[in-house]
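SAMPLE LOG
Freezer: B-3
Tube label: C17
Construct: single chain, 311 aa
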Amino acid sequence: MSDTSTAPATAAVARWWNSDLVHSFRTSPVAVGAALIAFVCLFCAAFAPWVAPHNPFDLSTLELSDARLPPAWMELGSAKYPLGTDDQGRDILSAVIFGARISLVVGLASVLLSVLVGVSLGLVAGFRGGWVDAALMRLCDVMLSFPAILVALLIAGVGRALFPNATEGLAFGVLILSISLTGWVQYARTVRGSTLVERNKEYVQAARVTGVAPLRIMRRHVLPNVMGPVLVLATIQVATAIITEATLSFLGVGSPPTAPSLGTLIRIGNNYLFSGEWWITVFPGAMLVLIALSVNLLGDWLRDALNPRLR
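STRUCTURE (predicted):
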């Protein structure tokens, strides 16, 4: 009985393991290495309270006498702080782990919001056409005429001015909104172009003839066939959103000082870079580079793997 019940599951796993996408991943050392790095970063960020040796946000545990200590392998370094400490005595390793957690949450949330808005508007514009398509595409043109970082900086600055005593949750909400405000445009234009092709195909025409509602056609028939480019674009945009968040935090309008992200840590360390305390800014910067590079490499692999011309 157990052999009969496990046979379909085993066959499904075998089909998945031998699929084109998994085979492409297994045979790509760059994709495997990038996935391992991304997994380690995500694991440490997700389980930061258990992985980090200290809690850098617990002010009661900070010791100002330990401020600006070098890494453990240097003279005057301490094994208690493997990567040294910052100007407040916070452990750099713990601060980097917790900072990566904040950067990843903001980046993933902003990309998710951009995908929801962009895919919805692009689907409607491509399927309906007419004045709806024209109005949405002119809105996209207007948004693309402004640099994304400038719009994000403006929204984040206005949000801080309107809510000077905002809680951490509201501050992160404004930050996510500021990054997503221009991020949705690329998804809208991508989905709109794919929808213009799909709406004239026979399966969509057959659904219209049988009386299927337009919303149901878009959701059940067109949407699954236009999500391939969106997945590739979303993977690459995660790294862009993380770097944008780090840039805003570096400029002082990103994450609040009570919950510093990688950009905030780099900004703090930049003040001590030329006085010899290089570790305060180098290690958060290295973590940011690792995350962005691994995500970009995964996005490049996914783009090639989903491209039928390269198979």
